[in-house]
Amino acid sequence: VPAGWSYEHDMELGRFLYDHNKKELQCGDCMTEHVSNVEVSSQVGDCGAASLTDNQTYSFWESNGPPGQHWVRLSMKKGSIVKKLWLVLDGDCNSYVPRRVAVYGGPPNRLQHIRTVLINENSFQNVCILRNMKFHLPVLEIRFLECRDQGYNVRLQGIKIKSFWEWDLILNSDMFQPARLVRYPLLEAVDTSVLYRRAVLIQRFVQVLDSVLCYLIPLSEDSIGTFNALR
Fold first, then answer.
1. Which listed residue, 37, 51, 93, 129, has the most CB atoms within 10 A of its CB?
2. What DSSP line would sit under 89-156, residue for residue?
3. What are the pLDDT digits (tens) for 52-81?
């Protein structure tokens, strides 16, 4: 811990990092900016890949074929890093809603399994199936393994993505310029190299916490004392 550093300094540095990333999150349509192409395994009539990115609630993509053979493939622009990837479900017909999906990523000829997601039966709209990737993946492929009610085909209203350019995520001492620290008085008098090293530590902690947070399942019988211990 740096000399003279306090919990309040960490809180203020955390706010600075959050505000810095928040500006990146305010970019426009990440699908348009970071995705170069969208392909689908099959389609019914005019219900094709274009319906996944038109932001229209009345249009949808619908697959056409045997179960377990449906996929959507996103070709990502070089340098893009996915922070969140959502499926926009069409809940009007339950048997067309995906129940279990697998996400693969990597070079086109060497896709590797990233994660498999079991979609909650109570989910009727946006479902996040991928988050917080740390590096660029040229291709992301969503494979639909199973639908609800033993359905054969998949129907999606859309796909949403939130992403960054990899060069925007690199922490360096230059980001702690005096002009940026005006709103953070506790940080103004601290050497930029100290702020940088502490920011790296916070970023590493956040990554570790994110990786295990999904396993911390709250139980209804937990007391407030248990929650305070966890916090």
1. 51
2. E-TTSGGGSEEEEEEEEESTTS-EEEEEEE--TT--SEEEEEE---S--SEEEEEEEEEGGG-SS-EE
3. 999 888 889 999 988 889 999 999 998 888
Token pair listed for 95? 């048997």
Residue 122: left if φ>0, alpha if ψ -120 to 50, beta else—which one? alpha
Sheet holding 112-118, edge to edge: 35-40, 70-76, 139-147, 98-106, 112-118
- Distance set, CA 98 to CA 25, 80, 128, 188 (Å): 28, 27, 13, 50
Q: CA 99 to CA 33: how far, in whole Å?
A: 29
Q: Tell me the CA distances in angstroms from 66 to 4, 71, 115, 137, 146, one per residue in order.
A: 64, 12, 23, 28, 11
pLDDT at residue 228 in the model = 67
Q: Percentage of the chain with pLDDT > 90?
A: 48
Nearest to 131 by CA among 121, 143, 117: 117
Output the pLDDT for position 150. Answer: 87
Q: Going by DSSP bridges, is the β-strand pair 70-76/80-89 parallel, antiparallel, or unpaired?
A: unpaired
Nearest to 137 by CA among 115, 166, 159: 166
For 173-197, how does the pLDDT look when each residue is reduced to its tens digit (9 = 90+)? 788 888 889 999 999 999 998 999 9
Residue whose structure tokens are 């980001």: 175
